[in-house]
Amino acid sequence: MPRLAISPEFTRELSTLARPVRRDAVVAVRRFLGNSPSAPHPERVRNSRDHRVTTLRLADRHRAVALRQGDTYWLITVLPDAAAWSYAQRHRFEVNPAIGVIETWDAEALERVEPALRRSAQRSKRRLFAQFCDTDLLEIGVDRQLLRLLRLMTTESHFEALEPLLPESQFAPLAALARGGTLTEAWRELDACRSSEPGVVDTADLAAALRRSPHLAAFAADRDELDRIMALPHWCTFLYPPQHTYANWAGYDEPVLVTGGAGTGKTIIALHRAAHLARAGAGAIMLVTFSQGLATELSARLDLIIEDEVERKRVEVGNVDRLAHRIVAEAEGRPPALVGAGDLATLWEEAAGSRFGAAFLLREWEQVILAQNLRTLEEYQTASRPGRSVELSPESRTVVWEAVRHVVDRLRESGRRTLLQLASEAAALLGQSTGDLLGQEAPGREPYRHIVVDEAQDLHPAQWRLLRAAVPVAPDDLFIVGDPHQRMFDTRVALSNVGIPARRFQLKISYRLPREILSWGVRLRGGGPADGLVDGIADLYGFRAVRNGTRPTVLGYVSPEAEIAGLISHVSEWMEEGVPTQDIAVAARTAELVKAARTALRDAGITVKVTMLHGMKGLEFRRVAVIGVADGIVPAPDALTPASEDPTARAHDLQRERGLLYVACTRAGELLYVSYSGRASPFLPG
């Protein structure tokens, strides 16, 4: 029987075929794996650039392109006959000699580039890679056939133009050198392209190279595994090297923090890390995310990754609020009562005076007092107030403390609490004895052996203290993923300040976003550094995409009615182009706009996801429409602190509103449409 590996491109192209053709192709691949007499036979390709390339006729006028070595077959793609023959003739395949991964080369396209490079080289004596000898370049895995092109390059722009034609394991280290970096920096970039230690690399061993390339190949040992690979979403099976490495590392001796921009696969890493820990079977696991809605989504995704029922039951998926609620309820013997937003606002208005407004007091309580778990006026008098620009004298702090005590006392009298109070009390209930409770029945306590945290940037210090208390300090205790640039709430806490000194890894490549949406989104976000999760600040330097796409469409309309009509027109056009409705989302800043869009779409017979900007968090779609991005709506006026009250808080509010729009816009993996009526939001890039 053949050893069969499937590429993600093969399953992607397979899904686009007409249903009868797709059915016949699947049957043919099953027969080939089973070595059936009726299975398709490999056919040699004339004038190919790689003698191992072959094709398999899978259906009427459609065939697979495969790479063959002995009994190992790698199904690369499936195309109409003419396109398949062209693909097979055009490409060659190599094993990177430094890290042992498989590389796909469009040899024909590179050959067409060479004459232009030669003409340019004749006009300049400068050479981009002149300071590195051939031996240096070969040691970092550079392909021998690429060397002659590199020796012709005179500017960095020459090299950047080749990016779409180069495997990432070639481009990344060479890009470091082109920017003026050292061979050590090039090796660092190359290391990010591997998913495991290669050992001794045999460039003639195709099967070993494919196993080192989990983002490009998945082996199917039997029909069930084959069907699973072809049916499941790609993220279930194919992980890019950094994703695979961080998710499947044998063990971490300390808490781990993985940060990365939109589309880098942080949630995918969290899911696969939870699955990895579940397979290890060392104890109960909690996968934590921002909201219960996202928790439901993650739970469904985890069901796809973990087939074994026993392993799946080891992972609980939820959010911190529900964890806190359960711990307090079990300790007190009844569900705790929560205060509503309206009632809480009324209490703060009662507490406000001529010196401090309700909004100021609420932020001081949440961002200073609850954040630092301050229990007495004396503690508050000496506490630092990071992020709060209004200086407070000891007398002023006393006034603030009394106002806060008024609200807290009123809440206690009514038997109600806020969610952050609940988190603080749950952390106190767990205390420091969690490690002694594993495997025991302990009412009021919910210890876990491992906790995996998604969307970490929006957790409050009180919630972090709860998570720290809910798992013992031990190897593989906390695995955290997040992005300070996608923060939706003003929670700026370094993990080290809440007892979690995490080892940090950073993701630099967006696999979801095309370059055009990424660059537009970074300009929208502001591109500047952000604080939170790590000590100091995190920047977007080096964050990039690996594929080209379509520039975002930004349209202005004369009226809200015309804008809604434009939305209907664009979504209808997408559906006519064959985009499934589940791959389309519409988002807006206000509930009124969401209601108007949902009603208009429903009247037009269109059912797609329509939500507020907050609801886009953690999701992804092929095409996204963000409407109502107008001045006076984005940023939302009632979400901004008056500059006269606290200019720093207002600046934070503006960045939060930018982050909210940035998150919604970067959910689009293929096409982004942004609209407004009247005057555009000041956030939109010019």
Kindly describe this structure.
It is a single chain. With 686 residues, this protein is of the alpha/beta class. Helix content is 43%, strand content 17%. The protein has 28 helices and 25 strands. The chain has a 6-stranded mixed beta sheet. Strands 11-10-14-15-9-16 form a 6-stranded parallel beta sheet. Strands 21-25-24-22-23 form a 5-stranded parallel beta sheet, with helices on one face. A hairpin with a 2-residue loop joins β4 and β5. The longest helix is centred in the middle third of the chain and has 21 residues. It starts with a strand and ends in a 9-residue tail after the last strand. About 2% of the residues have low confidence. It is an enzyme of class 5 (isomerase). One of its GO terms (molecular function) is ATP binding. Its EC number is 5.6.2.4. Keywords: ATP-binding, Helicase, Hydrolase, Isomerase, Nucleotide-binding. Pfam families: UvrD-helicase, UvrD_C.
Mean pLDDT: 92
Characterize the biggest β-sheet.
6 strands, mixed
Helix content: 40-55%
Could you tell me how far the N terminus lies from the C terminus, measured between alpha carbons in angstroms? 59 Å
In brief, what are we looking at here?
With 686 residues, the protein is α/β, with parallel strands linked by helices.
Observed structural traits:
686 residues; alpha/beta; six-stranded mixed beta sheet; six-stranded parallel beta sheet; globular; hydrolase activity; DNA binding; UvrD-like_ATP-bd; DNA_helicase_UvrD-like_C; isomerase
